[in-house]
Specification:
Layout lengths: L13 H39 L8 E3 L2 E2 L5 H13 L4 E6 L2 E6 L6 E2 L1 H10 L6 H10 L5 E3 L3 E2 L2 H15 L7 E5 L2 E5 L4 E4 L3 H12 L5 E2 L2 E4 L5 H5 L2 H9 L3 E4 L2 E4 L2 H6 L1 E6 L2 E6 L1 H15 L4 E8 L2 E9 L1 E4 L1 H13 L4 E3 L2 E4 L12 E9 L5 H14 L2 E3 L4 E3 H5 L10 E6 L2 E6 L3 H15 L3 E3 L30 E3 L6 E8 L4 E8 L4 E5 L3 E6 L5 E9 L3 E5 L4 E12 L2 E12 L5 E7 L1
Helix pairs in contact: 2-3, 12-14
């Protein structure tokens, strides 16, 4: 049986559907269209931006104070050079009514424009999209500032700025006490000033960075004194008593008296909790201690007692050394000075030496010097023998410098020397210690023969016949305290012993230097004598204190000459040193006194 089915048909309402969809799409279209247009415009702008500035510096870039944004490399280079040409070649600094200038050429200053522009061109092109986009956008609204590259000689600039700083500086000073016209007086304090540290350099470099041509004003700061005039008035009376009170240091029979100026030099003013007070000036007192220490110091002394063919077989210590006991003497000095005592004794310690004699290395005779003193008067013989005795036995440690003056000590009547002829101010005159130069001359010859380096040696002003009795001319050494000294350095690995032999019967003096032989050999050339000049005619001077007709010779004739000789010291065919010794002797006239007393 057939069944008829009735099919229902649905017919959509298209107009209604279109209206509904259109209503939903309309806002989206309204948004997309402007966005599309914006993106299109942005793409066009970006494309145009990159097209326009493809070979140009991006907008907004400034080098120093010069705008190079939007310019090609060549255009920017021209603009920078034009900016530089407008600048003055001098950098100008002003201070009060003074003007200082530094020429850029003098400090080798030079801008590096090509390098600077390469850096400028990299802005916006680093490869970092965020940074590059930010810089490109920012360039339209603000400056993108970079510093120029340049070169200059930093040492030259610093030196010139230091010179300017020194010229404008006003040295300040504390109030201080001085001795004027024999009286203690107070000098008022002075306020100083100086350039602010680093300010000149900083301002100069900023000028280079800005490519500017402006004058710089020097910044200064004041330096206030620590001690004022009124501060010193509180201790003036005490200082006055200390400075002018008699004061001396003693050591055995020797003494050193202080002048008021010397005492004042050893004083300083300290600020204490309760006010101001006097104290020892640390630096000046340490300098004084060094001087006094050298005066009282006595080196250990030794003696070679047996020698076999220049080899030392017996050697002994004959005397310990002495040195200033610094700590105790400082306290004693301070207490005596500030407590009103007139004298302080130098505290001295005995310096013991090692008992093991092998530690000294006194094994062999290294060199010997010999001289004759035939014809010398008794005072002269006494003086040269005394000087030889005082340097006899001195031990010189390795690396140390031997001083003849320190070895013999002070040369005057108080230390045992007689009056004999000496050379002084171009004249042969009587003086304390005449003849000591004979000792230094003999020592000089020993040093030469031992091959030791000579630190200090001075020839005599004229030829002295004593020194040529058994030696060629030129082998002499003069000393005059404290300026002229004979010194050598012990550059051997062991101690050197200075030993003397005085033979009054044969009028002979010897110096022997013992130590450790390190294989050195010595060659000394014969002296070359040139510019020989005869002595002037004798001079006769009338003397009313001498009997009429009597003649007394007070100076002696000597030929003038220039003399040189060379010493070469070697070891294992290697030259250690080569030195030339030169002497220029003046021609010397004989001087006679002619008596006129009736």
């Amino acid at each position: 049986m057939k069944k008829n089915h009735k099919v229902a048909t649905i017919t959509p309402n298209h107009n209604k559907l279109h209206s509904k969809i259109a209503g939903k799409l309309k806002p989206a279209v309204n948004i997309i269209k402007p966005l599309y247009i914006f993106l299109l415009v942005a793409a066009v702008v970006i494309s145009a931006y990159h097209t326009v500035f493809a070979n140009r510096i991006i907008p907004g870039v400034v080098i120093g104070n010069t705008n190079v944004g939007g310019l090609s490399f060549k255009e920017a280079l021209t603009r920078l050079k034009e900016s530089e040409e407008k600048l003055n070649k001098d950098i100008t600094y002003n201070f009060e009514n003074k003007t200082f200038k530094i020429n850029k050429e003098d400090i080798k200053f030079e801008y590096k424009w090509e390098v600077t522009l390469s850096r400028a061109y990299e802005i916006g092109r680093s490869g970092d999209i965020y940074t590059d986009s930010k810089d490109k956008l920012a360039g339209f609204f603000k400056y993108l500032s970079i510093k120029p590259f340049y070169d200059y000689d930093d040492i030259l600039l610093s030196a010139k700025l230091l010179g300017i700083g020194a010229e404008i500086a006003k040295e300040g000073s504390d109030a201080k006490m001085i001795i004027k016209d024999g009286k203690l007086t107070v000098l008022p304090a002075v306020t100083g000033s100086s350039a602010v540290k680093g300010s000149l350099y900083k301002d100069t470099v900023e000028l280079f960075d800005q490519i500017e041509d402006k004058q710089l004003f020097i910044q200064t700061k004041t330096d206030d004194p620590d001690i004022l005039e009124e501060d010193l008035k509180t201790i003036f009376d005490r200082a006055n008593k200390i400075v002018f009170a008699p004061f001396k240091v003693t050591y055995g029979k020797r003494e050193w008296k202080f002048t008021p100026e010397q005492i004042l030099n050893l004083l300083t003013v300290n600020k204490e909790k309760t006010g101001f007070d006097l104290a020892l000036n640390k630096d000046n007192f340490e300098s004084y201690l060094e001087t006094l220490g050298s005066e009282v110091k006595e080196s250990p002394k030794a003696q070679v007692t047996k020698v076999n063919e220049d080899k030392v077989e017996e050697f002994k210590i004959i005397k310990n050394g002495k040195e200033l006991e610094v700590k105790k003497f400082t306290e004693d000095f301070k207490n005596a000075l500030f407590d009103g005592k007139s004298t302080v004794e130098a505290a001295v310690n005995e310096v013991s030496v090692p008992e093991d004699k092998s530690r000294y290395g006194i094994k062999k005779l290294l060199g010997e010097g010999v001289s004759k003193f035939t014809g010398s008067g008794q005072p002269r013989i006494h003086n040269l023998a005394l000087a030889a005795e005082r340097t006899n036995g001195v031990l010189v440690p390795p690396g140390n410098i031997y001083s003849f003056n320190k070895s013999v000590g002070e040369i005057n009547g108080m230390t045992g020397y007689d009056t004999a002829y000496i050379i002084s101010n171009g004249r042969t005159v009587l003086g304390e210690g005449g003849g000591v130069c004979h000792t230094s001359t003999t020592m000089f010859r020993a040093i030469l023969n031992a091959g030791l380096p000579i630190v200090s040696r001075f020839p005599h002003a004229y030829r002295v016949y004593y020194y040529e009795l058994d030696s060629p001319v030129g082998f002499d050494a003069s000393i005059f305290q404290p300026s002229l000294d004979l010194q050598f350095k012990n550059d051997t690995p062991a101690y050197i012993l200075v030993q003397t032999e005085f033979d009054p019967k044969n009028y002979t003096l010897k110096f022997k230097l013992f130590g450790t032989d390190d294989g050195r050999k010595v060659e000394i050339t014969k002296p070359v004598v040139t510019n020989v000049v005869a002595p002037p005619e004798p001079l006769y001077q009338e003397d009313p204190t001498l009997p009429e007709g009597s003649i007394k010779q007070i100076d002696f004739a000597a030929w003038g000459a220039s003399v040189t000789f060379t010493r070469t010291v070697t070891r294992e065919d290697k030259e250690l040193y080569k030195d030339t010794f030169s002497s220029r002797y003046q021609p010397w006239r004989a001087i006679y006194l002619k008596g006129t007393k009736k």
